[in-house]
Amino acid sequence: MEKSIENIWKEGFLESDALVAPKINNLYNQKSIHVIDKFKSMFKINLIAIIAFSFIFLIISFFAGIPITGVIFFVTLAVLVFINKKLLNNLAKIDLGASSYQYLKAFNQWKNKQIAINIKISRFLYPIIFLSMILGFWFKDAEGMPLGERLVNEVLKGFPDIYLIYGIPVVGIVIALLILVLLAFFGDRIYKWDLNIVYGRVFKKLEELMTDIENLRS
Q: Is the full-model pTM beyond 0.90?
Protein backbone atom coordinates (compact mmCIF):
# COMPACT_ATOMS: atom_id res chain seq x y z
CA MET A 1 0.00 0.00 0.00
CA GLU A 2 1.34 3.40 -0.91
CA LYS A 3 2.15 5.62 1.98
CA SER A 4 0.45 8.97 2.23
CA ILE A 5 2.55 12.11 2.07
CA GLU A 6 1.63 12.82 5.69
CA ASN A 7 2.94 9.43 6.83
CA ILE A 8 6.14 9.85 4.86
CA TRP A 9 6.72 13.24 6.48
CA LYS A 10 5.97 11.85 9.93
CA GLU A 11 8.49 9.07 9.47
CA GLY A 12 11.09 11.70 8.84
CA PHE A 13 10.60 12.97 12.38
CA LEU A 14 10.56 9.70 14.26
CA GLU A 15 14.18 9.83 15.38
CA SER A 16 14.32 11.67 18.72
CA ASP A 17 15.15 15.40 18.73
CA ALA A 18 16.21 15.48 15.08
CA LEU A 19 14.78 15.84 11.59
CA VAL A 20 16.18 12.98 9.53
CA ALA A 21 14.42 13.56 6.21
CA PRO A 22 16.97 15.78 4.40
CA LYS A 23 14.58 17.78 2.23
CA ILE A 24 12.16 18.42 5.08
CA ASN A 25 15.04 19.21 7.40
CA ASN A 26 16.45 21.73 4.93
CA LEU A 27 13.03 23.31 4.35
CA TYR A 28 12.35 23.92 8.03
CA ASN A 29 15.93 25.02 8.67
CA GLN A 30 15.57 27.67 5.98
CA LYS A 31 12.19 28.79 7.32
CA SER A 32 13.47 28.93 10.90
CA ILE A 33 16.60 30.89 10.02
CA HIS A 34 14.63 33.27 7.79
CA VAL A 35 12.01 34.12 10.43
CA ILE A 36 14.56 34.49 13.24
CA ASP A 37 16.83 36.61 11.04
CA LYS A 38 13.83 38.84 10.34
CA PHE A 39 13.26 39.17 14.08
CA LYS A 40 16.93 40.03 14.67
CA SER A 41 16.78 42.71 11.99
CA MET A 42 13.59 44.21 13.46
CA PHE A 43 15.07 44.06 16.95
CA LYS A 44 18.22 45.91 15.89
CA ILE A 45 16.21 48.56 14.04
CA ASN A 46 14.00 49.01 17.09
CA LEU A 47 17.02 49.56 19.37
CA ILE A 48 18.50 52.07 16.93
CA ALA A 49 15.14 53.86 16.71
CA ILE A 50 14.90 54.09 20.51
CA ILE A 51 18.38 55.60 20.80
CA ALA A 52 17.75 58.02 17.92
CA PHE A 53 14.41 59.12 19.38
CA SER A 54 15.83 59.59 22.89
CA PHE A 55 18.75 61.63 21.52
CA ILE A 56 16.46 63.85 19.43
CA PHE A 57 14.13 64.28 22.41
CA LEU A 58 17.13 65.20 24.59
CA ILE A 59 18.04 68.04 22.22
CA ILE A 60 14.43 69.21 21.94
CA SER A 61 14.02 69.17 25.72
CA PHE A 62 16.75 71.80 26.13
CA PHE A 63 15.06 74.09 23.62
CA ALA A 64 11.68 73.45 25.28
CA GLY A 65 13.07 74.33 28.71
CA ILE A 66 12.58 70.86 30.19
CA PRO A 67 16.17 69.47 30.21
CA ILE A 68 15.49 67.39 33.33
CA THR A 69 12.89 65.42 31.39
CA GLY A 70 15.24 65.00 28.43
CA VAL A 71 18.21 63.81 30.50
CA ILE A 72 16.21 61.31 32.57
CA PHE A 73 14.42 60.10 29.44
CA PHE A 74 17.70 59.66 27.54
CA VAL A 75 19.52 57.86 30.38
CA THR A 76 16.56 55.55 31.05
CA LEU A 77 16.22 54.51 27.41
CA ALA A 78 20.00 54.18 27.05
CA VAL A 79 20.00 51.66 29.91
CA LEU A 80 17.09 49.84 28.29
CA VAL A 81 18.96 49.61 24.97
CA PHE A 82 22.17 48.50 26.69
CA ILE A 83 20.41 45.62 28.45
CA ASN A 84 18.60 44.50 25.30
CA LYS A 85 21.78 44.77 23.21
CA LYS A 86 23.44 42.32 25.58
CA LEU A 87 20.43 40.03 25.25
CA LEU A 88 20.67 40.27 21.46
CA ASN A 89 24.35 39.31 21.61
CA ASN A 90 23.37 36.17 23.52
CA LEU A 91 20.92 35.31 20.75
CA ALA A 92 23.82 35.18 18.29
CA LYS A 93 25.28 32.29 20.32
CA ILE A 94 22.45 29.93 19.34
CA ASP A 95 23.85 27.03 17.30
CA LEU A 96 22.77 27.37 13.67
CA GLY A 97 23.97 23.82 13.05
CA ALA A 98 21.25 22.38 15.24
CA SER A 99 18.04 21.00 13.77
CA SER A 100 15.33 23.54 13.03
CA TYR A 101 13.32 22.17 15.94
CA GLN A 102 16.19 22.59 18.41
CA TYR A 103 17.00 25.97 16.89
CA LEU A 104 13.42 27.16 17.40
CA LYS A 105 13.34 25.76 20.94
CA ALA A 106 16.58 27.59 21.78
CA PHE A 107 15.20 30.82 20.32
CA ASN A 108 11.92 30.38 22.21
CA GLN A 109 13.86 30.02 25.47
CA TRP A 110 15.83 33.18 24.66
CA LYS A 111 12.61 35.02 23.76
CA ASN A 112 10.92 34.06 27.03
CA LYS A 113 13.97 35.23 28.99
CA GLN A 114 14.11 38.50 27.06
CA ILE A 115 10.41 39.17 27.62
CA ALA A 116 10.64 38.31 31.34
CA ILE A 117 13.53 40.77 31.81
CA ASN A 118 11.75 43.54 29.93
CA ILE A 119 8.55 42.98 31.89
CA LYS A 120 10.52 43.67 35.08
CA ILE A 121 12.07 46.75 33.49
CA SER A 122 8.70 48.04 32.28
CA ARG A 123 7.40 48.22 35.84
CA PHE A 124 10.03 50.91 36.46
CA LEU A 125 10.35 52.36 32.94
CA TYR A 126 6.89 53.90 32.58
CA PRO A 127 6.77 55.40 36.09
CA ILE A 128 10.26 56.90 35.57
CA ILE A 129 9.22 58.46 32.26
CA PHE A 130 6.08 59.92 33.87
CA LEU A 131 8.11 61.24 36.82
CA SER A 132 10.62 62.82 34.43
CA MET A 133 7.75 64.67 32.74
CA ILE A 134 6.50 66.00 36.08
CA LEU A 135 9.97 67.14 37.17
CA GLY A 136 10.73 68.68 33.80
CA PHE A 137 7.61 70.82 33.69
CA TRP A 138 7.70 71.58 37.43
CA PHE A 139 11.14 73.20 37.12
CA LYS A 140 10.51 74.72 33.69
CA ASP A 141 11.23 78.44 33.81
CA ALA A 142 8.06 80.52 33.71
CA GLU A 143 9.07 84.19 33.68
CA GLY A 144 11.77 83.81 36.30
CA MET A 145 9.87 81.31 38.42
CA PRO A 146 9.56 77.52 38.18
CA LEU A 147 6.31 76.58 36.46
CA GLY A 148 5.35 74.32 39.37
CA GLU A 149 5.57 77.15 41.90
CA ARG A 150 3.60 79.45 39.61
CA LEU A 151 0.83 76.86 39.30
CA VAL A 152 0.74 76.36 43.07
CA ASN A 153 0.41 80.12 43.58
CA GLU A 154 -2.52 80.17 41.17
CA VAL A 155 -4.16 77.29 43.05
CA LEU A 156 -3.67 79.07 46.37
CA LYS A 157 -5.49 82.10 45.07
CA GLY A 158 -8.61 80.01 44.59
CA PHE A 159 -8.04 77.61 47.51
CA PRO A 160 -6.00 79.46 50.17
CA ASP A 161 -6.63 76.79 52.79
CA ILE A 162 -5.36 73.87 50.71
CA TYR A 163 -2.87 71.69 52.59
CA LEU A 164 0.71 71.72 51.31
CA ILE A 165 3.69 69.43 51.83
CA TYR A 166 7.01 71.10 50.95
CA GLY A 167 5.07 73.66 48.95
CA ILE A 168 3.14 71.07 46.94
CA PRO A 169 -0.64 70.50 47.32
CA VAL A 170 -1.38 67.15 48.91
CA VAL A 171 -4.03 66.49 46.28
CA GLY A 172 -1.39 66.83 43.55
CA ILE A 173 0.98 64.49 45.37
CA VAL A 174 -1.76 61.88 45.83
CA ILE A 175 -2.78 62.03 42.16
CA ALA A 176 0.85 61.76 41.00
CA LEU A 177 1.51 58.79 43.31
CA LEU A 178 -1.67 57.09 42.12
CA ILE A 179 -0.61 57.43 38.48
CA LEU A 180 2.89 56.12 39.32
CA VAL A 181 1.42 53.08 41.07
CA LEU A 182 -0.95 52.40 38.16
CA LEU A 183 1.89 52.66 35.63
CA ALA A 184 3.99 50.26 37.71
CA PHE A 185 1.07 47.86 38.07
CA PHE A 186 0.09 47.93 34.40
CA GLY A 187 3.64 48.28 33.11
CA ASP A 188 3.86 44.64 32.04
CA ARG A 189 0.56 44.88 30.14
CA ILE A 190 1.65 48.05 28.37
CA TYR A 191 4.91 46.35 27.40
CA LYS A 192 3.15 43.21 26.12
CA TRP A 193 0.76 45.37 24.11
CA ASP A 194 3.69 47.24 22.57
CA LEU A 195 5.55 43.96 21.98
CA ASN A 196 2.57 42.47 20.17
CA ILE A 197 2.27 45.50 17.89
CA VAL A 198 5.94 45.36 16.85
CA TYR A 199 6.71 41.62 16.85
CA GLY A 200 3.30 39.94 16.96
CA ARG A 201 3.35 38.67 13.36
CA VAL A 202 6.90 37.29 13.65
CA PHE A 203 6.12 35.47 16.89
CA LYS A 204 2.98 34.02 15.31
CA LYS A 205 5.02 32.62 12.41
CA LEU A 206 7.48 31.06 14.86
CA GLU A 207 4.67 29.46 16.83
CA GLU A 208 3.20 28.05 13.60
CA LEU A 209 6.59 26.57 12.66
CA MET A 210 6.95 24.98 16.10
CA THR A 211 3.43 23.57 15.88
CA ASP A 212 4.04 22.13 12.39
CA ILE A 213 7.26 20.43 13.43
CA GLU A 214 5.79 19.05 16.67
CA ASN A 215 2.78 17.68 14.76
CA LEU A 216 5.05 15.96 12.26
CA ARG A 217 7.20 14.53 15.06
CA SER A 218 4.16 13.08 16.87
A: no
